[in-house]
Task: structure prediction
Amino acid sequence: MTRLVLVLVFVCCFTLATQLAPVFESLQARGGRSSPLLALVGDSRRLFANQFFVMADVYFHSGYYPTIFDARKKEGPSHLDVAEQEGGDTARSGRKVVVDDEQFMGAPRDWIERFGRNFFPTVHTHLQGETAREIMPWLKLSAETDPTRIDTYVTASYWLRTRLDKPKEAEEFLREGLRANPGSYELLLELGRVYSYEEKNSRVARNIWELALDKWRRQRSAGENPDPRGQEEILGELVREDQQSGNLKQLLADLEELDEATPRNAVIEKEIQDVKAKLAH
Amino acid sequence: MNNVLALAGVVIKEMRRRKDFYVLFILTALITTVLGSVKFFNDDRVVRYLKDACLLLIWISSLVIAVTTAARQLPAERESRTIFPLLAKPVSRAQVIAGKFVGCWLACGLALVVFYFFFGAITASREHSWPLAIYFQALWLHWICLGIVVALVLFGSVVFTAPSSNATISLIVVVGILFCGGHLNGVAVHMQGISGSILYIIYYCIPHLEWYDVRDLLIHNWERISWAVCAGATFYGLLYSAFLLGAAWLVFRRKTLTV
Result:
């Protein structure tokens, strides 16, 4: 009897496997490199990806982070992708105390809350230097869960190239992102930065930024409303590159385009006049 | 006291015989080791995610061990009718409750020592340091927390009829307190009328188990807690455990023991 049951279970498993294999293959083909588990999770993967990104921010603050019960005073980008004001130093732990203008905790309401604050981090700090590597697993996980989340790739690349001295890994990760998001100008902008700032390869960087600008224009003509700041940033990098290489004609062309993107910018207009004067000599 | 210790010894022996601890420890070790083998961006010094995962597993495992061990103590004695020969000896019902509590609590403590030693070893393999003071504080506070949980479950086992319902309700209550207990006052101030007052009363009445969860301090290498604060939390925990055990004894001393 037991043998018969075992044979029956084996037959069931085999039948189920033959049924599920093509389903998983088609899911994988649709979702690129994603695993069957993630394919089955469906769109809720974005929630997980966002949560993993938040976890990276939590780690960046060494656990000092508002819960769902704490109201944040300001909504905006996470500290992972903005510059921060910092003061003080706790070198042993790899943290720096941050001058905080948006305390989410406020004063304790009662003795239980006051006493309870001894048991979790209550000081606003940011990870410094190489300790920033602690946020990377969450960014990687976020990208694995939702490969279309462009912010994750850009943020990870920023930390890899600026703090962790890993431009190769940053490039690899961005290329991974580009395979999942071939039309993203943000990823190309960041990739260009890897080549320009870390690899010191201005020719490749310039080509990549031109491609990024082309992608931005295509998105605009397709009515996808790309972020105008994206165009400004790309042109800004191109102008900087032109200034370094001394290519005045190209600089003038890029400046004029930047001027169109950011009208009535006195600095740019003055720069255009200066370049025109130099070209006239 | 001898009776209490003898009863506690039986509970510890029982835990040693059962497979719960071994299974949970092997699972924790296995998952942590697998996670530790993952390399992110060719950097093998990343450690905090590993500490986070390991501590989470330790907390889950310890709560499961504490709740399941404590929940079956009195019902098992009643079902197998061993409670009668036990009480026929010169052992009072208060001593039975105390013995079961001490046994479960010590058993949890032994399990915690093994778990935290493993955690320390895993962390030291990457960070090359043993911050013993904060490890000891984390273990101690965790143990005190489990003391409250064990007392709560023992109280539940004389109130609820089935061990399964007791274990489930206790776990829900404990997890609920761990997640929301410290925030009830914040929610209460935004509520109008009597519901806000009721929530505030609940906030003051529940044991604040979230105090004992110092995982964030451990994961992110914060400095140790002040010893006076630790002593305060210990006193608070012991007071709650004593209160819950007293309540359990009050119910148990008048309870009919026939199933």
Remarks:
- Chain B has a mean pLDDT of 93.
- Residues 2-252 of chain B form one domain.
- The two ends of chain B are 29 Å apart (CA to CA).
